[in-house]
């Protein structure tokens, strides 16, 4: 998919009216802005969980190159983006380069996907860049990697984590805040009571860590919760998964501050590696705490494996910086 084709083809907006606080107001403005440079715009407001996946899958499956939207906007938070991506990855031409390109318009509260693809550029400027308005950064279509959790078949977009970050999601349920402040409070509460588990991490079959473990984060995106840079060296289009393991040498309560700027990487007991297939296990006999894309996995897997799906998701990103 080339930018020129995207600009000459009608687009589809898939918007979650219940995401964040802004998406209802934002859609009319997005339609108006798209109408200035695209030949047509269809809009679908999602009706509930799973709807964005069904709509994206149906749109990507349309047979003619002219019926298929060149661009699909995912308007919402990271949950909406994940649903749209699930639909895009399940359908469409065999050659990923011919599939509709994704463009994220952030309307949630965490917005980690948008952050990875556009940094702190406001979405209106990103759209101006796509429209070719003079002065903005050049956009590019990048073929992003995804990964698959082999135990459940689930698609993983932002990343997955065992231990501390997974347990923080349990605390988040009872915190009456939204977005980044909610993740911040949940992580602090989880860290105060967290006990390391006995873990092992294998990368492409080689053991890179074995012992008391605070977390093993795999990605995917550099940021978790829109603010913790657990994988500061991760690129979303390098065909590899990054993994960072924080061992029990680090006090869990130091993790939020250390991961703000990648300061955890210099700590003893921290391992950073890359590979195509990563397995995280609890070898202490306990069911493991594990999440992916902010959703807790039922505690019934002693080990989970993530496998890279390289270069499968054409995505409009800021072109003058790495995507990660
Ligand atoms: N019409 C709808 N009514 C209720 N829920 C919906 C509707 N459409 C989609 N959803 C669901 O809303 C969930 C939350 O959406 P999303 O994650 O995008 O927003 P958010 O929670 O506000 O943002 P963030 O994840 O950034 O905090 C999604 O999992 C999706 O399935």
UniProtKB/TrEMBL annotation:
Coiled coil: none annotated. SUPFAM superfamilies: NAD kinase/diacylglycerol kinase-like. PROSITE patterns: DAGK. The keyword Ligase does not apply. Its cofactor is Mg(2+). Residues 6-152 form the DAGKc domain. Keywords: ATP-binding, Kinase, Lipid biosynthesis, Lipid metabolism, Nucleotide-binding, Phospholipid biosynthesis, Phospholipid metabolism, Transferase. Pfam families: DAGK_cat, YegS_C. The keyword Calcium does not apply. One of its GO terms (cellular component) is plasma membrane. GO terms for molecular function: ATP binding; ATP-dependent diacylglycerol kinase activity. Belongs to the diacylglycerol/lipid kinase family. This is DAGKc domain-containing protein.
């Amino acid at each position: 998919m080339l930018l020129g084709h995207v600009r000459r083809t009608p687009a589809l907006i898939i918007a979650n009216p219940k995401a964040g606080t802004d998406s209802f107001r934002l859609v009319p403005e997005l339609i108006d802005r798209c109408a200035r440079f695209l030949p047509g715009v269809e809009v679908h407001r999602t009706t509930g969980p799973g709807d964005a996946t069904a709509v994206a899958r149906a749109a990507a499956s349309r047979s003619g190159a002219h019926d298929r939207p060149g661009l699909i906007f995912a308007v919402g938070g990271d949950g909406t983006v994940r649903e749209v991506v699930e639909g895009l990855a399940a359908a469409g031409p065999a050659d990923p380069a011919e599939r509709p390109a994704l463009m994220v318009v952030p309307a949630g509260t965490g917005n980690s996907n948008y952050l990875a693809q556009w940094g702190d550029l406001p979405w209106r400027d990103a759209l101006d860049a796509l429209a070719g308005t003079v002065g903005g950064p050049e956009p590019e279509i990048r073929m992003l990697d995804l990964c698959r959790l082999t135990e459940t078949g689930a698609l993983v977009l932002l990343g997955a984590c065992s231990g501390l970050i997974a347990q923080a999601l349990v605390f988040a349920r009872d915190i009456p805040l939204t977005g980044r402040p909610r993740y911040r409070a949940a992580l602090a509460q989880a860290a105060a009571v967290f006990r390391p588990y006995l873990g092992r991490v294998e990368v492409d079959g080689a053991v890179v860590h074995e012992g008391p473990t605070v977390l093993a984060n795999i990605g995917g995106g550099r940021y978790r919760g829109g603010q913790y840079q657990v994988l500061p060296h991760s690129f979303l289009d390098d065909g590899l998964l990054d993994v960072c393991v924080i061992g029990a040498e680090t006090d869990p309560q130091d993790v939020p501050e250390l991961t703000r700027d990648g300061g955890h990487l210099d700590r003893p007991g921290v391992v950073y590696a890359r590979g195509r297939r990563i397995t995280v296990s609890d070898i202490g006999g306990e069911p493991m705490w594990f999440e992916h894309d902010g959703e807790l996995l039922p505690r019934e897997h002693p080990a989970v494996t993530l496998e890279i799906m390289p270069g499968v998701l054409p995505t409009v990103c800021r072109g003058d910086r790495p995507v990660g």
